[in-house]
Amino acid sequence: MLIDFGFGVLVLSFLLALFAIGAAMYGAQRQRAAWVESARRAILLTFPLLSLAVGALIYLLVTGHYEVKYVYSVTSDAMPLYLKITALWGGQAGSLLFWSWLLSAFVSAVSLRDWKGEREFLPWVIVVTAVTLAFFLSLSIFFENPFERWWLLPNGDAVGAMFRPAGGAAAFPPDGRGLNPLLRHPGMILHPPMLYLGFVAFVIPYAFAMAALITGRSDDRWIRVTRRWTLTAWLFLSLGLVLGMRWAYDVLGWGGYWGWDPVENAALMPWLIGTPFLHTAIIQEKRGIFKHFNMALIILTYVMVIVGTFLTRSGVLSSVHAFAQSAIGPMFFGFIALTVIVSFALLIRRWPLLRDEIVLERLLSREALFLLAAVVFLSVFFIVAYGVFSPLVYEIVTNEKITFGPPWYERATAPLLGLLMLLMGVAPLSAWSYTDARSLGRALWKPAIPALLTPPVLALLGIRNLIALIGFTLVVFVLAVSLYEYGRGVRARMKANRETPFQALGRLFARNRRRYGGYLIHIAMVVMAIGILGIELFQTETQRSLSIGEEIQLGGYTLRYDSLAQFPHTDGRRVTRAELSVFKDGVFLARLAPRYDLYPDGQPMTIPGVYSTLADDLYVVLVNWENVSTAQTPFKVYHNPLVNWLWIGSLLFIGGMILTAWPPKESQTP
Amino acid sequence: MKEKRLLFALVALLVLGSLFPLPALAQQATPSDDEVNAIARQLFCPVCENTPLDVCPTEACRQWRELIRQMLAEGKSEDEIIQFFVDNYGARVLAEPPRQGINWIFYIVPPLAFLTGLFLLGRGLRDWQRKARQTAVQPPPVPAADEYAARLEEELRKRR
User: Fold this and answer.
1) What are phi and psi of B29, to 5 degrees?
2) Burial readout A524-559 (b: 16 or more C-beta within 10 A, e: otherwise)
3) Do A360 and B152 touch (CB under 8 A)?
4) B44 and A405 in contact by Cβ < 8 A?
5) Cβ–Cβ below 8 Å for B148 and A390
6) Percentage of chain A exceeding pLDDT 90
7) Averaged over A210-214, what is the pLDDT?
8) Could you tell me if A431 lies within 8 Å of chain B, comparing CB atoms?
């Protein structure tokens, strides 16, 4: 009953989205405001309807309706309530519905805004968002239906289908298979919604950009209207990436946080285009240039959002052949091709309209430096995309597989990331439009001093690694520039308004949130870079089998193996848990308990024991594939210098983002 | 006489030595986990997607690590072991495409893409500059760091 209700509502939302597309186009073409209004209400209605569908699915998940194939595949009786709820996005069909639901929420929110200033955008924003929504809903209805039931065929096979197949009898499995254990971690529970929120929010600026192209409006209205959407999208996408990194570090047990895996890259690619867009959009607002460029960037961001979802959802990554066989793959492929062709055709048609309002004169102006940074970002994006797609093309052509592993990505992107850090330092000190070498030099020399002092100081401390010396120098440079900018602003305010330093800093932020919030994000980025440089360049590891009482040394720490326990957990998994004591210079510091859990379905999960300080992490894994016994227990120990700064930088980053994106008080709205 | 004894001793030593051949020596030094991992780290699991061999938890990979240990014990070099895996499981076990033949495009294209970007940027800026020279000469404003700082400076001046 509830199953049919959920599916029915899903179909109804799909029909409403289709109606909205038709009505909005008709209304725009014939200048009939009533039709546009009707389309607006239709799209507005998709959110409550899809909420009902999502609510129905959650109810089925929580109450253990295992006759529903999706419920069977992601939940089991032993799972706690919160995991049953979050299993909504624990599998393919559920996460696609979740995607559509988030999109309908955003689209409804947009349709409720006050459209006075840009009434002509309304029908086209509805068309673009409704097409996207209809596409994802069609995937849910025709290919990945979360409401499919189990049926037993006369020949004994069990199949999933929405409606009773010929001769089929409804099947009611007593218990479900349960969620993949790797996904039962807070990081993995929050990571997909954050990523999806980021993905979905980028649909809104894209829709406005398309509306601007279709209506031929050449000003920066679409950018101003969607500025906060873009920032929000970027915030959630970044959050999603960081949570994914943390999850990998905590759960995968290989001592790292990022493996340049295609699935990770799929989420990184929209970020690599969204980030320069965020910057060059500011320039269009301020100077009326880069209009074509911004259009191209937002189109590419949207395309990458769809590509990212496609890569992770179609199975193309495990094998191009599996992709060709799946129904969902070609659908995605077609939609992506259509998006690219239509969007760029529109851009080309409107090309002459989007002329620059001023001319760019100086090579060292902030505009030119932003553009250079955008080129670097796009190059990194290109490299990542090249690394993701080359193995696929190679497999199609030669029928053999090749691997693009971390060394390939690191070698190709590291110099560019260094260049980006340099630009992060130089660009804030350059001026709009009229910088020459001398004025830039005058602004640069003070923050450059601490940066230039960094290599000799590090060399004295015994660091000889060239990449580390360059990297840390750039870190200090960006830190110095950002702090110098704060200092300059605060000092000027203190003098002018007789404010205390804290008042001055607070008001500095209040007056120009985007700028000073932006510097905080820059600081956060380089703090993250400290952690990345530390773990990438100075990680050490060792592996040995210990018997109880034996010790292992790494990175100045001594680990003593104290005990081992094996016991069944209430939810059915078998836990093997070792205890070790950490010492440094003979002083006891902490007790670590790495463990591995073997789930009933045979899936193991390795949870490291981590002793974490600002200087380094000691990361111990019970190597789960070896045979464990108290006589000989295999441990793998990683020493990860400075890695904590990656997480500290992440927190700072989120703080900076929220500060920048927070809606200003009414009086300050531009 | 003395030489004869020495010769006899040498022959005896050789005979005795052949009774305890090389494997015995190798067994004394079983390659450590770290030595195995140093090679496994450079290889990718041939069955799982994108998982380095040193951290892959599957049974197949455990056996491959044991194979590395065995080959090390037999005195095989790092290159020989890696080549063995490439010969048996294809180039996909390497962390990067092997640098040969057509594969070079995987190494040439990325820097080329960046250089192309730089070239396009340079050309765009040159066009802009040319246009700027053609348009009317604007009076260059004070080279202040930026608008906001300029406004601050101005407020400061007014106060004095």
Assistant:
1) -115, 75
2) bbbbbbbbbbbbbbbbebbbbbbeeeeebebbebbb
3) no
4) yes
5) no
6) 55
7) 94
8) yes
Of the candidates B117, B39, B47, the one whose C-alpha atom is nearest the C-alpha of residue B79 is B39
| Residue A428: predicted pLDDT | 85
The β-bridge relationship of strands A574-584 and A587-592 is antiparallel
Instruction: Kindly determine whether residue B33 and residue A543, on different chains, have CB atoms separated by under 8 Å.
Output: yes
Whether residue A604 and residue B57 make contact (CB cut-off 8 A), yes or no, is yes
CB proximity under 8 Å: A 500-529 to B: 511-512, 515
| Average pLDDT over every residue of A217-221 | 83
Q: Which fold has domain B26-95?
A: Helicase, Ruva Protein; domain 3 (1.10.8)
Token pair of A30, please?
């014939």
* Chain B nearest C-alpha distance from A427 (Å): 11
A 240-269 residues with CB < 8 A to B: 253-255, 259, 261-262
Per the model's pLDDT, the better-predicted residue between A662 and A380 turns out to be A380
What interface predicted TM-score (ipTM) does this complex get? 0.84
For A335-398, give the DSSP string.
HHHHHHHHHHHHHHHTGGGG--SS----TTSHHHHHHHHHHHHHHHHHHHHHHHHHHHHHHHHH
Tell me how crowded residue B126 is: count the other CB atoms within 10 A of its CB: 11
Contacts of B144 (CB under 8 A, 6+ apart): A431, B150, B153
Q: Is-contact A639 A541, C-beta < 8 A?
A: yes
Average pLDDT for A201-227: 91
Smallest CA–CA distance, residue A586 to chain B, in Å, is 25
Write down the pLDDT at residue B144. 45
What residues of chain A lie within 8 A of the CB of B49, using their CB?
Answer: 261-262, 317-318
The confidence band for A290, taking pLDDT boundaries of 50, 70 and 90, is confident
Calpha distance A598→A606 (Å, rounded): 9
Strands A158-161 and A169-170, how do they pair? unpaired
Give the residue from chain A lying closest to B93, CA to CA: A403
Q: How many interface pairs between A and B have CB atoms less than 8 angstroms apart?
A: 146
- The predicted structure's pLDDT at residue B23: 45
What is the residue extent of each domain of chain B? 26-95
pLDDT by residue (tens digit) across A82-124? 999 999 998 889 999 999 999 999 999 999 988 887 888 999 9
Helices and strands in chain B, H and E counts:
7, 0
Q: What is the pLDDT of residues A118-158, one digit of tens each?
A: 888 999 999 999 999 999 999 999 988 999 999 999 888 88
Query: Which candidate from A431, A434, A496 shows the least CB-CB separation from B156?
Result: A496
Number of H helices and E strands in chain A, helices first, is 20, 13
Percentage of chain B with pLDDT > 70?
Answer: 66
Mutation target for B interface from A261, A403, A439: give the one with most B CBs within 10 A. A403
E strands, chain B, are none
Predicted local distance difference test score (pLDDT) of residue A338: 94
pLDDT of residue A661: 80
State the residue for tokens 């970044």.
A238
